[in-house]
Specification:
The chain is α+β, with helices and mostly antiparallel strands and 282 residues long. The chain contains seven helices and seven strands, in the order H-H-H-E-H-E-E-H-E-H-E-E-E-H.
Amino acid sequence: MFAVYVVCAFVFLYNYSTMPESVTVLKKENNALKAQLSSMSDEIAKLKELIQRHSDSGTVLPREEGAHCVEFLSKQYDDLHLFRDIAKDELQRLSTKLEALKAKVDTIGNAIDEIQEYSFQYNVKIVGVPERLQDDSTASISKLCLNIFKETGADVSMYDIDTAHRVPSRNNIGKPKPIVCKFVRRLAKESVMNHRKDACKLNPTSVGLPEDASLSAVRIFDHLSPRMQTVLFEAKKFKEQHHYQYCWSKGSFVYLRKDPTSRAIKIKALGDLLNLGSGDQS
């Protein structure tokens, strides 16, 4: 049964050589493989424990008369020990393959994260822009974004924008859906980020919105990858639990600062928060 699991797992890995176009699909398949590996690891651990328990308890021979019975039981005892030795060797072999497979899965997961994070470096997320356009197409949203950027003073043109669209958000119930704008050039994005503070001060008619629309709630952020969004969420909880004064994101990373006089701490992964928490407790 375990050999079948191992073969199936390697088949999954082979399929990754095709590299599906959708990173979302790739992540879903990778997560399913991780779940399968976890289940396999648990079963191997249980079987190891069962064999170890039998090895520790030993075999108690019943009291029977006759040399033939003693020889028969002795052969059974020897066969049992042989089976245990073979089973242990097989478990060791499977465990070694399992660890190697886990390492490959982690490598694939890291590659997925790197692909996403590289792509997200070209994105900004704009919140608070009223949904007042009659045409909600990509072209219209892109033009609205361009108007906002240019009115803030950013050096950007329509040729710098790859695409722009509104995205659903569970945290924005009753509020305008956020806009994600993807740039072609990093320099254009950096110019937008350098002028973003003035976005909330713009006149709505100057960007193509009705006069009664309000841009006072407009904010422009780096668009973090799903992994880093999780890191930011946990960092905000860490900030409250450990009494840090500041938590923010910039570029592809999250930062924490204890107080105005302390240095900013770059958080690249959840493990950094665990290490930081351990240091605070020591």
